[in-house]
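Fig. S4 source data, part A: sequence.
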Amino acid sequence: MKKSVLLGTLAVAGLAAGAVSAQTLDEVRARGALNCGVTTGLVGFAAPDANGEWEGFDVGVCRAVAAAVLGDSTAVNFVPTTGQTRFTALASGEIDMLARNTTWTFSRDVDLRFEFTGINYYDGQGFMVPRELGVSSAMELDGATVCIQTGTTTELNLADFFSSNNMSYEPVPIETNAEAQQQYLAGACDVYTTDASGLAATRATFEDSSAHVVLPEIISKEPLGPLVRHGDNEWGDIVRWTLNALIAAEELGVTSANVAELAAGTENPEINRLLGSEGDLGGMLGLSSDWAANAISSVGNYGELFEGNIGENTPIGLARGLNAQWTDGGLLYSPPFR
């Protein structure tokens, strides 16, 4: 999902973000746990399992940061947030970072005064409809009722798409993915629109997923990634480079299974710098030398995290696509560890 524009109370919250003390690393260490904002529940990305344990692709980013900072991937307090509450929670200091299917936009970066620390999923907005409607293209949706989450970029994208194509629609506002699913299945709307990945995750939970179709059109760019408050540069570096460590690890062939062996030293200088057997990159972040090794051993590299939670062999069934490594024709690319 995405976030809303810079209006009303969110703009005020954004201005307040700059005033928050840049001491998040010290606070996390003193607390002994990371407070990580996630969605209220989106299977594959962030949702509690039958035992109440949070799991998913975005959850893995939170756990990786906790492992890098605290040496313990379980030392995370997961804070569910909606499209309306997520930015206030981050700006106020209720959470230390947000990892919640959040789109990097100009206004969120500049006007709301947040710092996006990278992109963990390249996405785009799509549409899902019941197969029985016989719709095969978004260009056939003139006059449709559309379930749409408030406080998200999907609102503006939807308005732009219908306006530019001289079509009309009736919005059915909802706050959470669970509410969207309920309303959509109850027939309160003809269409559900959100990130294509979110549509795939939602459809995977349906009793008969084959009765619903994700239309081929992608109407926007939705670069999703974790974010922190402006002005907390040390903490932002930690979140940024932890994500980069997972991405680089996949490219370099470092996995959760071999990271301990490789951490003893290899013939590849970049692997050695990444895992702490050469140089002092961890010290530059104020962390231990094995910070990245801890993150990778806890959640796996980017590929492991992707395939284990949302990949083609999971109920979500997402192909890597744009989220493949740059060496495989995708957009995934980490700056060098040197």
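Fig. S4 source data, part B ends here. The radius of gyration is 20 Å.
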